[in-house]
Each structure stands twice: as structure tokens, then as C-alpha cells.
Amino acid sequence: MPAKRRFLDVGGWLLTILTLVCAAIWFFPLYWAVVTSLKTDDETVRQGINLLPESLNFNGYAFVIQNSDLPYWYVNSIITSVSVTVLAVFMAACTGYAISQLNFPGRKALWYLILASFMVPISALIVNHFIVIAGVKLLNTHAGIVLPMLITPVTVIVYKQFFDSVPREYREAAVIDGSNEFQLLFRIFLPMNWGITTALAIITFIGAWNSFLWPFLAAQDEKMMTVTVGITAVQDTFGVAYGRVLAGAVLAGLPVALAYLIFQKRVTQAITLSAGIKG
After folding, report:
1. CA 260 – CA 240 distance, rounded (Å)
2. 68-278 to CATH, choices 1.10.3720.10, 3.90.470.20, 3.90.1010.10, 3.40.630.10
3. Which three-class secondary structure string do you get for 120-133?
4. Where are the domains of the chain?
5. Distance (Å, rounded) from C-alpha 231 to C-alpha 181?
6. Dihedral (Cα; 74, 77, 83, 84), 10-degree rounding
7. What is the C-alpha separation between 247 and 36, in angstroms, rounded?
8. SS in 3 state form for 250-274?
9. Burial class of residue 43, CB neighbours in 10 A (0-12, 13-18, 19+)
10. In 10 A of CB 62, how many CB atoms?
11. Phi, psi of 183 (to 5 degrees)
12. What is the DSSP annotation of 160-186?
């Protein structure tokens, strides 16, 4: 075997081993959370490292479900995440189409504004969001939680790029047939990019479900909290009951984990698109 071939084989094995080690390091906290949630309170504070529970104990899950507002939190998270996904993707598609295909005064200025807003972290706008939402009396409402989360410039940028790639002949043929702009968008441009829309919708849903800072500030009533905010209340209530706390955390992350497993290819595609824009 040539020396170069042997070197490549050894390098491949080393990269594989490194990848497995990194994957194990990443996966272990998730594994430990699930295992700890299945332990009794005595096991969780016992000295030593026990990688498996002595017996499967679901009391933590039962306690969280029976002694918290978890059903309300799930409903709030579903309402918030679905609303953010539908509205944000719809608005981004319309905006991306307008910037890509229409000529109107201020088009370039709007495009540069969207590009500039992409560089501003959302956390830097939290104070302004709070002042505005409080000023219009929308704190502690679903609308107050949803509205500031609709700012998704990366989605607009992705749509604009893909609409730019659609051949002009499709638009010209549809215009000759008498199609208006909404028909062009929803019957031609979006159907040609359903894969992109699906990927962006999934990643937007996951991001909205996992959002913590703004829902934490906007939801003042415990029954208006989303599940990611509610589990912090569980932690405060349960104190050092680690099994119960982690049971709440597992229940909070379960829908997103299932969504990722089901739509893994679409999620990966959306992350690749976002990374391409950021690059």
C-alpha cells in the first residue's frame, strides 16, 4: 500500500474517532438528564456516578404533570410557535417576493435595512420591545408574545435569493395569462420552492418553541407562560428535587426533539441555508 494511501486511511480513522468522541460529549448531558429524571430522589443525591437507574421511576413525570400548569404551558407554546411560524414565513415570502420581483420606491433602501437588521442581535432590542408592547397593553397576552418574535430577516433573505433564481420567463408567461402578483407568488414562485418553505417553517417553529428571554419577560401570569419559561418555575418550586426538575425539562424538549427526528433532512437544509446566508 502506498505511503500516501496509508496516511489517508490513518487520517480518516482519526477523524472518525474524533467525531465519535465529540458526539459522545455532546450527547452525554442529554442522556444524563433523561436517566436522572427516571431516578428516585435518593438516587439523584447519592454519591458516585450511576449511569443507569436502579429501576425505572416515573414519579417525577407524574408529579410535574399533576402539580404544575404544564398543560397550559404546552398550549401556550403551541399557539405561540404555530402563530410565529405561519405569520413569519408568510410575511417573509411576501417581502422576499416584493424585493426580488417588484420595482417600487425605496426597494433598495428596504433591502439594505433588512440586511442591516440581520446584523443586530434580537436581545439588543428586548428593552424596546418591552416598552412598545407595554405601551399598547399587550403584555401577558399571546399577541404580545408573538409580535416581537416575527422579526426574522434571515427568512426574507433566503426567500429573496431563491426568488431571484426563478427564470424570468415563468413570470412573463403568467403575466400574459392575466395573473396578478398574489397569484404569481402563491401559484408559481412558492410551489417552485416548497422545499425551502418547509425547511424554513420547521426551523422557525423550533426556534419559537425554544425561545426563552422574550416569553419570560412578556408572560407575567403563570398560566400564560410557555413551556420553556414554565420549567424555570418548576425548578423554583421543586427546589433540589433534581429528578422532578429534569422530568420537566425532558417534557419541555420532547416535542422539539420529535420534530427534529421526523423532519431531520428539512432541519438540516434550513440550517445549511441559514449558514450560507451568514457566510
Report:
1. 31
2. 1.10.3720.10
3. CCHHHHHHHHHHHH
4. 3-61, 68-278
5. 45
6. -160
7. 8
8. HHHHHHHHHHHHHCHHHHHHHHHHH
9. middle
10. 12
11. -65, -40
12. HHHHHTS-HHHHHHHHHTT--HHHHII
Which residue in this structure is represented by grid cell 427526528? Answer: 261
Matching residue, cell 411560524:
85
pLDDT of residue 234: 61
Dist. CA 205–CA 226, nearest whole Å? 13
pLDDT at residue number 235: 58
Amino acid present at 216: F
Phi, psi of 89 (to 5 degrees): -70, -40
- Below-70 pLDDT ranges, the chain: 1-10, 233-240, 266-267, 269-279
Q: What is the pLDDT of residues 97-131, one digit of tens each?
A: 999 888 889 888 999 988 888 788 877 888 889 99
> In the numeric block, which cell numbers belong to residue 277?
446566508
Q: How far is CA 154 from the centre of its chain?
A: 13
DSSP reduced 3-state for 152: coil
What amino acid is encoded at 246 in this protein? L
The three cell numbers of residue 171 are 413570470
Q: Model confidence over 201-221: pLDDT tens digits?
A: 888 888 899 888 899 888 888
